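Below is a filled-in request sheet from our internal design queue. Each sheet records the structural input a requester submitted and the sequence that came back. We keep these sheets so that new team members can see what a complete request looks like end to end.

REQUESTER: design group, bay 2
PRIORITY: normal
MODE: inverse folding
CHAIN LENGTH: 238
BACKBONE (tokenized):
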């Protein structure tokens, strides 16, 4: 059924390609549902405010804020059904010409995580950055080296992302790739690998489709050692 849902989304992108005329925006709000193999379900509401209007002209809609270097502030609230706890997060991304700064604070039932990123845009669409995560439940900080590249392949775009993470001698790598069928639709693959003994590789697929000029649906599916997670998000822009 999960494969069928993704296939329908891909087919729809071809059937309705070009129908949506993108609109500039300054606010995005979303609602998400996450099912972690039946062991936990999470409901989340999120909102992002951009300090300046985001232009959507001639760019893939999922990446316009990144390509436009649009600074923003975001807030989210989540509810964990089985654990019966709540969480919230506050994040900010700021651009100073080619320099990138991001900070975040997350809290789930009193366990907090403070994160920071510092990066530089080497050229349009190519960002490299370093980061640190200070998690309350971890003995040591996690240090991060990452990159993100959104490239134009003759009218169709690709998004490539990668992170190397290290924590007290334990290392991991996370990779993601998205192909934009058109400006409205993307499909992608994800993989995470760790050198920690007993931790299996995580594989994933994802898709996002703007079925209206300012509304989108997003699907993510991951699997690790037969444990499956599926997430769905609806979002609107104003």
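RETURNED SEQUENCE:
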């Amino acid at each position: 059924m999960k494969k069928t849902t993704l296939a329908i989304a891909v087919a729809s992108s071809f059937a309705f390609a070009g129908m949506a005329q993108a609109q500039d925006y300054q606010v995005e709000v979303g609602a998400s549902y996450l099912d972690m193999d039946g062991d936990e379900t999470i409901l989340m509401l999120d909102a992002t405010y951009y300090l300046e209007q985001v232009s959507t002209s001639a760019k893939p809609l999922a990446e316009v804020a990144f390509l436009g270097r649009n600074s923003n502030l975001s807030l989210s609230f989540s509810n964990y059904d089985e654990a019966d706890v709540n969480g919230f997060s506050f994040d900010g991304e700021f651009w100073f010409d080619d320099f990138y700064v991001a900070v975040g604070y997350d809290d789930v039932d009193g366990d907090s995580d403070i994160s920071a990123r510092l990066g530089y845009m080497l050229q349009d669409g190519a960002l490299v950055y370093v980061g640190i995560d200070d998690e309350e439940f971890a003995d040591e900080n996690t240090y991060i080296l990452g990159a993100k590249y959104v490239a134009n392949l003759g009218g169709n775009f690709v998004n490539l992302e990668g992170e190397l993470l290290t924590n007290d001698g334990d290392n991991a790598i996370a990779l993601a790739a998205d192909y934009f069928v058109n400006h409205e639709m993307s499909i992608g693959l994800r993989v995470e690998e760790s050198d920690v003994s007993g931790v299996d590789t995580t594989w994933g697929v994802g898709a996002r489709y703007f079925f209206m000029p300012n509304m989108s649906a997003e699907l993510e599916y991951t699997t690790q050692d037969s444990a499956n997670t599926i997430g769905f998000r609806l979002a609107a822009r104003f």
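SHEET NOTES:
- The first helix runs from residue 2 to 15.
- The longest strand covers residues 41-54.
FILED BY: M.R.
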